[in-house]
Amino acid sequence: MGRKDKRRKKPSSGKQVVKGTIEVTRSGLGYVIVEGLSKDVLVKREHIGNALDGDVVKVEINPRGKKFGSRPEGIITEVVKRKQIEFSGRLEVHKHYAFLIPDNDKMPVDIFIPVQLTNGAKDGDKCIAKIVEWTGKTKNPVGEVVSVLSNETENEIAMQSILVESGFPLSFEDDALEAAARFPDVLDEKEIKEQRRDMRDELTFTIDPVDAKDFDDAISIKTLQGGYYEVGVHIADVAYYVEAGSALDEEAYRRATSVYLPDRVLPMLPERLSNQLCSLRPDEDKYAFSAIFKINKKGTVKEYWLGRTAIRSKRRYTYEEAQEIIEGGADEFSKQVLVLDEMAKSLRAQRFEKGAINFSSQEVRFKLDSDAKPIGIMVKESKDAHKLIEEFMLLANRTVAKHVAEVQVKNKPLPFPYRVHDDPNEDKLKIFAAFAAKYGHRFNMNTPDQIAHSFNEMLELAHGKPEQHVLETLGIRTMAKAIYTTENVGHYGLGFEHYCHFTSPIRRYPDVLVHRILADVLAGQPHVYKQLEQQCRHCSEQERNAMDAERAANKYKQVEYMQAYVGGDFDAVISGVAPFGFWAETIEHKCEGMVPISDLFDIDDFELLEEEYALVGQHTKIRFRIGDKVRIRVVATNLEKRQIDYTLVELLDDSKPQKKTSKAKTGKRKK
């Protein structure tokens, strides 16, 4: 059997072997996404082997196997890289061995655990196991129990399982932790004197969330002559500590991002670095990588300087404290904060004049008790203090990107990890424009600039009106996803020709890459990193995985919160539609659940009209459209599935017939 497998894996004459990422559907079919191929390669269940959803694989394309239209068909010959090697599940222990029964449906087989690798776990325990071996010759992978969760709280099990399902390791390797522990607490004065601009005497402060521990960025300000100021954007110099190819670097790259859940942060770097050495804490000397601007209150930059520095933050502001100053409060540095706010407002106005799109967003945060149970839900507003920091970070990011974009090596642009955002999808945009027209908004779609102008005009006119949220939500859905890539196509949403991520290296790996390349450029030794595009793709993928984990954790907390409201009625807004029903988000709690299509049968038979973002009754023509207000009842909650079930009580538009229901309940929270 072994020889036969080896022969099969060798490319046959005339057959093409390509590398890509596999997506496995619930039906068991696989689709390998290959860069450069116009269509994905279809792989039947029997030819997937031990590849799992999200793995990087090699696939042998069979030119005669095109039975699914024009889509090529293939056979997986090798798993190049696993997306996920740790899985949560329930342990089943036998006399000489054990199996982990995975929670994740995308893991189709159980994990074989030799009894000596159970690490004390007992039959029935909830565990996390890591795959240590899985050859093509065996159906089941061999694993090792790395964590026993049975003694943990339900919340702890859920949060750890979500992180593992998304492919993020829960702990750091020992060599990375040892490397982090070896760094000295104090800065090297020789390093500062010979390699850095010493800015420790300059007025510098941070503005961050009240619960922040990793302070990536700080701002300094000094008055110059002629109405100008020296404003420094100082970023933690993570690349000084995390050298390319080191154990710390490998760990950071594997994660590529910190993950923010409602009750915790899973950091990209060990806490010794993320919360201590690299964090720009007040009254501590720190290494930084800085962008220094000579700028006036109108946001006009006369000149800039980029380089490594040493800084010392004099004050740590929360966003709330900085906002209080902007709204009329005062403290020892209020004059400087107000000057920065004036500059930020000018920079923001310039962006929108040059084509940036003024989308606003709402961030929902949970108020948790000591056991991490949600006891309240808050909507976080973006105020002037947030926008102040945002504008100076944007200024630093685009300045660094523009600086490096002008560098060439052998008459070619230096490869660089840009943060790009392509033009909107034309088909999606046409559907959205037709929808916006129902609210009286006209779109000029002749050029990308005119599209951006139309968006801003619509958002301004819709501000404060009932349709504002739905138009913003659907407008964002027409946009391309921002990604990391060496192909600089600009950032459409921000209206920048050149853009990168430079300002958060504690929590984003692309920023570390940017720091390394910028350091090479400033030293006059630009270096071409051959694997950079591959690294960009990995970072984009990990960013999506982190967002999936964050959404799953937020959904878990929503379900946990709404458990106390089963049987209660609430006003809600339709947030999505599908052939099988519609999603509704409660106005009071921002908790989303599903109203199934079967719940609407006594009104009419409904079909999905995608161009109207609506379910439409075939006989009554009643519409359940995104943005419409409805009243729903909470029918059931399922924590394991992270699911809330609603039923329709009534339509809140008086022009539509109402569904007859029993008397509405109050919806008060159960004690």
List the keywords.
about 675 residues; OB fold (Dihydrolipoamide Acetyltransferase, E2P); 4 domains; seven-stranded mixed β-sheet; five-stranded antiparallel β-sheet; 15 helices; globular
Describe the secondary structure blueprint for this structure:
Elements: H1 2-9, E1 16-24, E2 30-33, E3 41-43, E4 56-62, E5 73-81, E6 86-93, E7 97-102, E8 111-114, E9 126-133, E10 142-148, H2 154-165, H3 174-182, H4 189-195, E11 197-198, E12 204-208, E13 217-223, E14 228-236, H5 238-241, H6 247-255, E15 259-261, E16 264-266, H7 271-277, E17 285-296, E18 301-312, E19 315-318, H8 319-326, H9 334-353, E20 363-368, E21 374-380, H10 384-405, E22 408-409, E23 412-413, E24 418-420, H11 426-437, H12 448-462, H13 468-478, E25 483-485, H14 509-522, H15 532-562, E26 569-578, E27 581-586, E28 592-596, E29 606-609, E30 614-617, E31 623-625, E32 629-638, E33 643-651
Parallel strand pairs: 11-18, 12-19
Antiparallel strand pairs: 1-2, 1-4, 2-3, 4-5, 6-7, 6-9, 7-8, 9-10, 12-13, 13-14, 14-17, 15-16, 17-18, 20-21, 22-23, 24-25, 26-27, 26-32, 27-28, 29-30, 30-31, 32-33
Helix pairs in contact: 2-15, 3-6, 9-10, 11-13, 12-13
